[in-house]
TrEMBL record:
<dbReference type="InterPro" id="IPR005782">
    <property type="entry name" value="P-type_ATPase_IIA"/>
</dbReference>
<dbReference type="InterPro" id="IPR004014">
    <property type="entry name" value="ATPase_P-typ_cation-transptr_N"/>
</dbReference>
<protein>
    <recommendedName>
        <fullName>P-type Ca(2+) transporter</fullName>
        <ecNumber>7.2.2.10</ecNumber>
    </recommendedName>
</protein>
<feature type="transmembrane region" description="Helical">
    <location>
        <begin position="763"/>
        <end position="788"/>
    </location>
</feature>
<feature type="transmembrane region" description="Helical">
    <location>
        <begin position="244"/>
        <end position="264"/>
    </location>
</feature>
<keyword id="KW-0067">ATP-binding</keyword>
<keyword id="KW-0106">Calcium</keyword>
<feature type="transmembrane region" description="Helical">
    <location>
        <begin position="56"/>
        <end position="74"/>
    </location>
</feature>
<keyword id="KW-0460">Magnesium</keyword>
<dbReference type="GO" id="GO:0046872">
    <property type="term" value="F:metal ion binding"/>
</dbReference>
<dbReference type="InterPro" id="IPR059000">
    <property type="entry name" value="ATPase_P-type_domA"/>
</dbReference>
<dbReference type="GO" id="GO:0140352">
    <property type="term" value="P:export from cell"/>
</dbReference>
<keyword id="KW-1133">Transmembrane helix</keyword>
<feature type="transmembrane region" description="Helical">
    <location>
        <begin position="80"/>
        <end position="96"/>
    </location>
</feature>
<keyword id="KW-0406">Ion transport</keyword>
<feature type="transmembrane region" description="Helical">
    <location>
        <begin position="875"/>
        <end position="894"/>
    </location>
</feature>
<dbReference type="InterPro" id="IPR023298">
    <property type="entry name" value="ATPase_P-typ_TM_dom_sf"/>
</dbReference>
Amino acid sequence: MEWYRESIENVIKKLSSNKDTGLSNDEANKRLKEYGLNELEEKGKSSIWTKIIAQFKDFLVLILIGASIISIAVGEVTDSIVIIAIVIINAALGIIQEGKAEKSLEALRKMASPNAKVIRDGDKNIVPANTLVPGDIVLLEAGDIIPADLRLLESSNLKVEEASLTGESVPVEKNAETILDNEVSLGDRENTAYMNTIVTYGRGKGIVVGTSENTEMGKVAKMLKTFEDDTTPLQKKLDQLGKYLGLGCLVICGLVFLIGIFQGRNLLDMFMIAISLAVAAIPEGLPAIVTIVLALGMNKMVKKHAIVKKLSAVETLGSTTVICSDKTGTLTQNEMTVVKVYAGNNFIDVTGKGYEPNGEFLINNENIALEENNELNTILSISSLCNDATLNYSEEEKTYKIIGDPTEGSLVTLAEKGGLKKDVLNKKYPRLNEIPFDSDRKMMTTFHENFINGKIVSFTKGAPDIVLDRCNKIYLNGIEKPLTNDIRKSILDANSSFSKEALRVLAFSFKTYDSIPKDISSETIEKDMIFVGLVGMIDPPRTEAIESIKTCKNAGIKTVMITGDYKETAFAIAKDLGIAENIDELMVGGDLNNISDDELKEKVKNIKVYARVSPQHKVRIVEALKANGEIAAMTGDGVNDAPALKKSDIGVSMGITGTDVAKSTAEVILTDDNFASIVSAVEQGRIIYSNIRKFVFFLLSCNIGEILIVFLSILFHLPIPLLPIQLLWLNLITDSFPALALGLEKGESDIMKISPRDPNEPILDKTMITGILVQSIAITLATILAYLWGLKNYGIENIIISRTIAFTTLITAELIRAFSSRSEKHTLFEIGFFTNKTLVYAVLVSSSLLLIVLYIPVFQTIFRTYPIDLKAWSIVLRFCLIPIVAGEINKIILKKLND
């Protein structure tokens, strides 16, 4: 029900409550049984067995398990053990890296207020927040976390910080008496307060209208529950590749088996050959290497201030085409900051960042002497004294923080930039009385002694038009002068210029007395005042975010800002950041309610800024982008961001200012809350994907070469040159080390100067397919020529020697050509032969393993090898150079064709 559209009387009546006495304890207990606890249900966690089973759903893994079972059936136990071992290792790595259960709903529960002040049976009580029920009367004071959704019954200067729910950085003024006739967005419901938002100012009373999942927070939780994790682009492509390889494997195995039977070969022998070919066709090490490279990529990203919670997210970052970013705290500092002052007919720029009390006051880019500027000094004094916020320095966190209203916090900081400390001023000019701020007057006044010539002074700050309307004089050059129409017009023009820059503007004035007035009211005090000046403040953009957005543009990545702020503020920030250039690139949340999903799908192609949006709007925006084929990343830090973080291809949360909900929902957490860190993470993701292509190319060209070797030997009635156990050793051990080293390449220097790849682009594109064909043919040619040489020189009766020569040639060729696989477009002369030291070490390790298999007797027995002599080695070293030469020539030809 839309309670904000109901009068106070109707709400109380419909909930059968009483404004003054609240519910009875008996009625509260009765309703508690009916509605349940005021907490969010936790989604059931996956069992360890569910997680283990999930690791074995990969098509390649299923084929490996099938091959293992067949190997046992035909007596090849060793082959089977090795296959199962690699499958188990791969599954263990996946569980370790991705085994964290979903904690979003649990975090949502923890964020609820533990206690609430309620009226029951006419008495004020403090009760656990989770026992609140609809109809309870809740009392609110500054600093309280609102424990449930409330329709306000009373409000006195009440302000509520709703940034975590709506994204709006400035606390919202609440008015219980307001009745809204039409449907309005969450951030505009001034007569309602929502669970988990914070009272920053004033006091109030409200009636509970929603608990647990019937709150706005509960709606967020429900959305998170319904979302399933989407398959990432890499997962889709590798799964597709695995299916193609598996089907191709079955077809080729069947074809070879039939050819052999047709040739009159032994049935069991042909079955074993088919198994051998199956082993050759499947890149057994691919799943494990992908997992390891992604895990290593995760470790690299930690050094770049990005914690990646899921392996698949590493690659997804690299394919990102759109970054949807929350404004508050992500693109901006989430610290209201005074940047402009208008005093003495001068526009004064104020430098400094956030709540850091360091900055300069400039007129036309030149420093001004504060001691000579009476108007500015007076504004600084009013900023600090007519103020209830305090600025504190945290020794633990090494940063300044505001206690109180962010707007007032920016004014305290402004004063300290001018050397006026709040505690010193309060002692020197103690507060005698005050007229608190309220939303009707839109002003606040405090009284102090001894400020001007020993007199009592009242300081007033508030909305510029209202304050100015109540002034009849202006403070200029330290002298009170009449406020003429021309001067009044210049002040209004200054206010208008500040507003056009999306600044929140406050006006300052004062009035002096010989003694403290007896009648202290707005009507008697806040009139005939002396105008001093204006102050303009904003939640400023992060400077590093501006550079990061430029980098994104160069990389072909679109940045979209999504915020709960008003249209003017959102556009001004977006323009400063370089996200948007004209107002046509902005859409307001209310407009989203009036268009279909298909219309939105077209709109998102050109819109770069979304203002006054709800959590549901964010999800729709992300879904529309994804429907257009975009790979969408969503950054954010609030509860309001969680559904979109979950729905996006890659959710990125702020680590410092981010809520537990955002952190638990996101796949990536930025430990420094720096938008620039996501750009570094995107770059690393691109490098990782490029490296995955390199080792996929390396492994597949070898496997296809093995298929051709076995297939051609059958076709031409030759004895099988490579045994299943030899192929398994080659694929799992010897090839895996160089492939892993290829996954650690530093990446191309221009990787962030090219557009994102097409999300639908397969891993095996034309360039890679050409390279695989060239390499696999060269590998086949080299191995078969060496095998034929062995058969000719040692005879069929010594086939173990010929097979060992073929085995050694194939492995050596693979190890040498690994250096050529480091780049798809640059030759070895361009990238350097030994610039990847990890690959050099990997080749040395694999070479050592080859020598162990050849010359240690126990391994000779297992792998059926022979200790070949120098004569055989001379043949091996000649033929093994064929693949690397062919690969380098292929690069040169392709480069000339592309040029």
